[in-house]
């Protein structure tokens, strides 16, 4: 464990060629299934360091820098990119690095969309999903619908928030990875039911809203977000929904122990299903 701690603390990573560009991969711990950590929009792999170090105590864990972030090379043109590109990068990375499936794939924020897209296209690779305050494919429309009717005299903070949802959020040039969030929403329409795939959803318990929004609008925004989180939990008939009561959106940093608990639970659900299948075969 000391060696793992040194690796995480120093940020050591190996570069893996995924087809003309290299991604920086970190790997610690031993055991199976392997836990794969998928970052949200604009977050380098070190966002998961605290979680990775704890997970390494009970199984192997891998995490990495997206193209253009941290120690990874920029992705070649064309841009913008989508969750389809991110999932393809991750699939090549794991294959080239010879990290065999199955995986428990844990994604934060937009990483939750990437995790679900990966599962849809490489289902045999995935033993379980963990969604950490995950983005939702309908979040732009639902959050806009939670706003009051537009008025010429509305507070500046409300007008700016409305503009962000309408324009900035869908502009790939507005984020460091040049991700097309509008295209992501369309791509995710095919990623619906998960059957009985083990699924753990971790949602924030503390309000997360742009500064200056009126309290009643913050409450409406959080109710809308919580409903989307419940909808994600309903994607699988084998799911658990956990609320990180003391965290806003950055649960990985504010309550990493809750994320680790969710990953432990996902592993337990995987093993429970395997035991049940073995018993049925006897």
Question: How would you describe the overall organization of this protein?
Answer:
The protein is α/β, with parallel strands linked by helices and 282 residues long. Helices cover 41% and strands 16% of the residues. The protein has 10 helices and 8 strands. It has helices at 2-10, 49-55, 83-96, 110-121, 139-145, 156-166, 181-187, 215-233, 251-254, 256-281, and strands at residues 14-17, 22-28, 34-38, 61-64, 103-108, 126-132, 199-204, 239-244. An 8-stranded mixed sheet has the order 1-2-4-3-5-6-7-8, with helices on both faces. The longest helix is centred in the last third of the chain and has 26 residues, at 256-281. It is globular and about 60 Å long. The model has no long low-confidence stretch (mean pLDDT 92).
* H-E order: HEEEHEHEHEHHHEHEHH
Strand content: 15-25%
Round the Cα radius of gyration to an integer and report it.
19 Å
Largest sheet: 8 strands, mixed
Q: How many DSSP helices?
A: 10
Helical amount: 40-55%
- Poorly predicted regions are none
C-alpha geometry? globular
Mean pLDDT: 92
Q: Which secondary-structure class do the elements indicate?
A: alpha/beta
Q: List the strand order in the largest sheet.
A: 1-2-4-3-5-6-7-8
Distance between the termini: 38 Å
Instruction: Tally the beta strands.
Output: 8
């Amino acid at each position: 464990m000391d060696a793992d701690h040194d690796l995480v603390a120093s940020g050591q990573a190996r570069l893996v060629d995924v087809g003309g560009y290299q991604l920086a991969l970190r790997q610690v711990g031993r055991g199976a299934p392997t836990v794969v950590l998928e970052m949200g929009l604009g977050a380098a792999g070190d966002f998961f360091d605290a979680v990775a170090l704890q997970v390494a105590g009970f199984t192997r864990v891998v995490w990495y820098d997206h193209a253009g972030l941290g120690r990874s090379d920029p992705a070649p043109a064309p841009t913008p990119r989508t969750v389809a590109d991110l999932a393809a990068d991750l699939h090549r990375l794991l294959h080239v690095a010879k990290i065999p499936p199955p995986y428990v794939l844990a994604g934060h924020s937009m990483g939750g969309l990437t995790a679900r897209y990966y599962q849809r296209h490489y289902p045999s690779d995935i033993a379980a999903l963990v969604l950490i305050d995950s983005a939702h494919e309908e979040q732009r429309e639902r959050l806009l619908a939670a706003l009051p009717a537009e008025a010429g005299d509305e507070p500046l903070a409300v007008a700016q928030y409305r503009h962000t949802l309408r324009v900035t959020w869908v502009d790939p040039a507005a984020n460091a990875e040049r991700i097309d969030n509008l295209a992501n929403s369309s791509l995710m329409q095919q990623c619906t039911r998960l059957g009985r795939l083990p699924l753990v959803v971790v949602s924030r318990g503390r309000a997360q809203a742009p500064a200056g929004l009126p309290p009643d609008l913050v409450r409406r925004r959080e109710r809308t977000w919580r409903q989307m989180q419940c909808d994600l939990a309903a994607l699988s008939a084998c799911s658990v929904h956990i609320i990180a009561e003391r965290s806003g959106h950055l649960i990985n940093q504010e309550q990493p122990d809750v994320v680790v608990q969710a990953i432990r639970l996902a592993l337990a659900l995987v093993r429970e299903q395997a035991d049940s299948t073995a018993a049925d075969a006897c």
